[in-house]
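Run log, item B.
One chain of 257 residues. Sequence copied directly from the ordering sheet:
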Amino acid sequence: MVWVHPKKNLGQHFLRDRGIAHKVALSLTGTGYGSVLEIGPGTGILTEFLLERNFADLKVIEIDNESVHFLKEKYPALREIIRGDFLKMNIGEYFDGNICIAGNFPYNISSQILFKVLENRDKIVEVCGMFQKEVAERICSPPGSRAYGILSVFLQAFYNAEYLFTVPEHVFSPPPKVKSGVVRLTRNATKDLGVDEDLFTRVVKAGFAQRRKKLRNSIRSAFKLQHENCEYFNLRPEQLSVGMFIDLTNWIEKNRI
């Protein structure tokens, strides 16, 4: 079977380096889950090495019909190839227990994938895969760094984030214009933030909406407050840890009009 890349216009760059694919597959810890879902396997270069890991349940989800047909022929050992869009997927319909999400994630929907992970954090205990390097750094950056932002806070509230290694442009087809980074997220012990999560989301977004300004300015613009004696108001948003954002949210809850 002669294979061409049918998804070149779907925002995905296909990994060609088997060594890197193997390294990604080995980065899955296998701890706390027996099921793995690979997103957007394309030609299956990562799938091959995930199959070698002998997980109890490996499924892939692929939106492109030609890729689905190819994968069925090349990997008959795959338990299930789901034809569909991960962003619209009801994960509970396919998995009973905890799962890991893996993949060379399409750059154009990587943030949306991560927000869906957050929505399903009680089931998704690990995420391991490749992102645009800028996004990978944003995921893992600690407070005080330039890359630390909204995505960092939301993910690090519920996951431990590790930047594993950088992947150069030339190992993809077609080559992207930027480097990639492999990240591993593992679920932490936090079950509940202890705050109104909708308000927490609003506070974090409001803070980073004007990230060069002190929080006094951005929070005042977003909320009507009884007074402004919060200890964090003289700081900029990137200086606040997840715990400090939780404290700020609780303070706003008590002091907004």
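Observations after the first pass:
- The chain has two domains: 14-187, 197-255.
- The first strand starts at residue 14 and ends at 15.
Flagged for discussion on Thursday.
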